[in-house]
Fold these 4 entries.
Entry 1:
Amino acid sequence: MDNGFFKNIEKKTGVNMKDIFDLANSLQNANFKDEKTVRGVIKKVAQLANKPVSKELEDQIVKSIIQDSKSIDFNTINKMLNNKK
């Protein structure tokens, strides 16, 4: 991909693309049925996005991923983030 493309994303989001790629690589073999792993991923994403995640929201996301066997997609996460109280 074009390096300018990534620079443009970094400008708009404030997130370093290297950090995104590092996170993506670490998720390739992650066990999403393990609560500790899922909580770690949530915290890392929140840190990268510079968005606080309440304990309640974290618990909801963990439950959704582990217990409800929902697929992990941006729409599901977006709905959870937009419905936070």
Entry 2:
Amino acid sequence: MNVKTLKSFIPELFLIASVIYYWILTSNLLNPIAIALLTIIVYQIISKKSTLGLIISGVFILLNLFLVLALISELSEFDVVNQNYKNLIIFGSLYLGLNLFLAGLMFLKYLKLKIN
């Protein structure tokens, strides 16, 4: 694989890294959700189907928008602005922003494939 090919799969590779991170946090070796997600993403990388890519990226966008609401809800529970509040807003916003940006890139990539 050359660098240009690898660059085109950055959103999918980020999704794989996120699923592996989720899998590690659950501390359950046989996590069927993580196994299914990894299988779908790897299948998408191999097959490059535009419809499946649009579905994955659309679901990814919707889930991250839901997580933005969860972040706002969690931030509203703080009475004072302390270091935990600042950490949550900085790292939560960066992570969710990166997720939304990469999901948008993935959506545009597969939308262009679908149109052509």
Entry 3:
Amino acid sequence: MRVPQWFVLVWVLVIAVVAVGGAIFSYTFVRDRSAELDRVLDLPELPQIGSAAEAPQPVTVPTEAASAPGEPAATQDASSGEGEGEDAGDTIDAAAEATAEADEIAALGGEAAVWDDPRRVTILLLGVDQRQGETGPFPTDTMILFSLDPVGKTAAILSIPRDLWVEYPELGQPGRINTANILGDEINYPGGGGPVLAARTVERTLAVKVDYYVVINFEVFNTVIDAVGPIEVCPPEPIDDDRYPDGSYGYITIHFDAGCQELDAERLLQYARTRHGDSDIGRSSRQQEVILAVRDRVLSTGGVTALLPEIPALWESMQANVRTNLELEEMIRLARTAESIPGENIRQGQITFEDVWAQTTPEGDNILIPIATDIRLLIEDLFRPAGAPSAREPVSEPATQP
């Protein structure tokens, strides 16, 4: 039987289609399966050339107890990361860092090492009442605002009474200004806790921008005074206080004669803190007297430059007792700028009973309500440019021609 040619042609085409389809199916199946395995299996990276052949080599680390000349130095295997070599390396790094820091501090003795920003800078000093065994947070026993005009060569010192009644910014609640530090630490106020809330509260109350804050306790005060030597103060009248805090919630009796006298750190702290002998207003005046007396003492012994060799050790001993957003170098630059300001250009002020309303809370506590207009005049007077007339003194009328 003879097969038609068209029949043969049809079968050839069918076989070709099946072959091609099978090849495509096989390729697709293998490709998808391979991709699935790659997704499931965590295949290792291909080894790089030389990665497995190079073993760590021991390195030479000099130790603090140096070998005698001619003897081999101790070695430490770098692969272990432990042992005496690591300790020695840490010691070397710490020593190098300390040396570099000392060199930087020594460089600040140059004439150009002063505050180089021409804008007025304002610092809030917070002295906290930290007693034995307490871990905080602490109320601020002292609040003093320092303002420095580097270009005009003027400075201002403003004492803020601790009973000033204020409203804490962003919290919508009132209270004494000396508790802002406690509240800020308790609620972890954004930016730095208590000192930041205290600074923002001062800004809101006095309408003055606060650039930096420094929080110190009594230990810092004593350390600084011990370093610079006894300080001379001149109380105009005798002071007697039979309720001076002894640091452990008890009281002692203290006395100061009238007239100029040199005081060591402990007695100077008592002089600056006592208030039962007269009042908070008297205490603020004494604190400013102490600040300027310390400045005079430092200048008489050669200024900040003469203290530079002692500053690293002082700073190390004080760090546990200081909270600040200033760097040590910035503090030194500010101090050098401040000592260059003539004494007659340093203005002193305090918020007194003329600037507040004395009132009592329902609980019977004494508070001071600020009079905004009077405080504004006080700030303008303290911050006025050199040679400008006081905003609190009446301007004399020019004489009229007959």
Entry 4:
Amino acid sequence: MTTHSTPVTARIADLPAPLPAYSPRRMLAEAADFWHAFIEAAFNPYHPEQHYMRGPGPACAAKRNASQR
């Protein structure tokens, strides 16, 4: 089996140069990334703890009691 992939060095060379640490564009991008992650975490509608089952419910207990008679 032959795989045709580009060398890693070719893909790295295609990336844009990183912005300097003091660049206003970079600071703005980092602030935007922070706020985006914050909003995602703060207003995430999925709360798995609300769907956690803590044991058999009343239907299971009723079925068990009916089968034991």
